[in-house]
Design goal:
Protein name: M14 family metallopeptidase
InterPro entries: AstE_AspA_cat, N-alpha-Ac-DABA_deacetylase
Keywords: Hydrolase, Metal-binding, Zinc
Strand order of the largest sheet: 1-2-4-3-7-11-9-10-12
Organism: Paucibacter sediminis
Structural class: alpha+beta
CATH superfamily of the largest domain: Zn peptidases
Low-confidence stretches: none
CATH architecture of the largest domain: 3-Layer(aba) Sandwich
CATH topology of the largest domain: Aminopeptidase
Cofactor: Zn(2+)
Helix content: 25-40%
Number of helices: 8
Mean pLDDT: 97
Length: 372
Amino acid sequence: MQIQKHLLLAPAPGTQRELLSLHYGTPGSGPKAYIQASLHADELPGMLTAHHLRQQLDALEAAGRLQGEIVLVPMANPIGLSQWLLQGPQGRFELLSGENFNRHYPDQIAQAAAAAEPELNQDAAHNVRVLRRELQKAVAGAPVATELQSLRRTLMALSCDADIVLDLHCDAQAVMHLYTETPCWEQCEPLQRYLGSPLTLLATDAGDNPFDEACSQVWWKWDKQFAGHFPIPQACLAVTVELRGQADVTHELASRDAQNILDFLAYRGLISGAVPPMPEALGDARPLAGCMSVKSPVAGVLVYLREPGATVKQGEVIAHVIDPVSASCTELTAPVDGLMFARECLRFITAGASAAKVAGREALRTGKLLGA
């Protein structure tokens, strides 16, 4: 294993942060997988899972079982990890710009395509190599003016040529669930099985260019651009893996999740030896546009009646909001039939805030599909 340190643009004199990446296997000897943890720096299950991955990857590499390259970034956001206010972590948004750390990744699709086009032909594997090479050049040459931009460029430079990209996150309180683009679903379905996830949410360009889509959408967009001229496969499976809730930080869960990820990498040919049998599917894929928020019209004490993972019916009461002054009780109901896969941690809710998310089977929303 090789350790690389990447210096970020210093935000002020006397301060400079660095990003650490761990490199296993041999570049170019097989497929490449890229795994990062805690891009939202206060979402810690991924960081512990990366710790267990590191231990197992050390052993696999020592045994000569790695085929290809695996890059692990065990702490993807040193900026967010340093942001605390009154003992509370502020890891989702950069306090300087107010921007979500998992949005607004740069787009070098047109630039890389223009540079690659003269070399493209009817060999799909050749086209993948050429496009990856030009994408790497475009990412590396992109100018940055802020520390946050330099973090985004560094993460993209490490991941943009990968066959598999796993971005480890978590929700507030939730069952495990995945986000990926619709063109990636065929490749993602085995991952969902190995992870034992009951839900994958699918969209094509959900809006604001989050990290996973910045890695995967280049391929289906190039395929659309060159349709009828050059074959362009979906050469990157990029998935946001939501490792349950923020408090689900245990060695038992993290070691199991790490092993399940490695089982999937073995299935994809990055680890030699017997491939673990693919588990039965525990869930399905549903449109992200069918994921509906349960919002409260009033403020008050939030009392949940259903747990994450519950199957609910439209109109079913899933929570109460109690006004401690008037003693009124407002019922919050499921907006659609579906899986209530996530809910909030805090037990006081403000008017208009979301209390839970229910994944239905029909696409009901349009426009930007991701939250803040």
